[in-house]
Amino acid sequence: MVGDYGRKLEFGVFATPDAEQVERLLRVATVADERGLDLLGVQDHPYQRRYLDAWSLLATIAARTARVRVFPDVASLPLRQPAVLAKAAASLDLLSGGRVELAIGAGAFWDAIEAMGGPRRTPREAAQALTEAIAVIRAMWSEERSVRVAGTHYALSGVRPGPVPAHPIGLWLGVLGPRLLAELGRSADGWVPSSSYVPPERLADMHARIDEAALAAGREPARIKRIYNIFGSITAQSHGFLQGPTRQWVDQLTELVLEYGMDTFIFGTEGDDLNQITTFAEEIAPAVREAVADERAD
To answer: What is the pTM of this model?
Structure first.
């Protein structure tokens, strides 16, 4: 266990970009916005024929909502050229009044990426490309007259960056390996693991790698946001981790904050169940905020 970083808590929903369920998907966005959730994340799998394009969907959601912030969870870097990705994020941030964050990943499902015309990268190449992409994105969001970034996979050669985002967009990484966890500690603003890949017992070691690199770079680890994609079901009876009644959810999420270092929870439910999302927003999120505030006050 790593303990509490003391960060502000946020809650959101993990929406499935199913092209055959457009009206339900837009309803999920409306519910998230109206019920006070902070974030809405959308998977980015361009090679998945059933899925809508993530950026088109995020733009539509931003236009139909008033307060919820949107982000790709996470953008597939091998199919998203980082300079253009930075411009897209900055543009949507301006158009939405500062309601965009950016989460990126090094890549997965390499057969599908290659089939769509993207590069097939080794783990080392993927890590190097992501590190270079971070520098490119930061440069494209700067107010410099022109910027240069040297790189093997991505480079800038005197391009004029812009537009500058409406607010300091969070640059979050969906990474798991030690090399990229260290890079996250050095240069990123947040970490986005999923409970299906990283159960609570694995979090401490990964936090430690991030924190060690952050301290070595002169950064305070508590500056780094810890976003957890969580998948489960709110049910009458307990069936295990995040499978049970509201009280169990409150207790387990509170423990994830105070003992396991997470501060933001993005809820994915089977079939984008609107009742589950509403319960999460109206009952679970406020109760977790209250429980954590009480513990922090002691």
So the answer is: 0.97
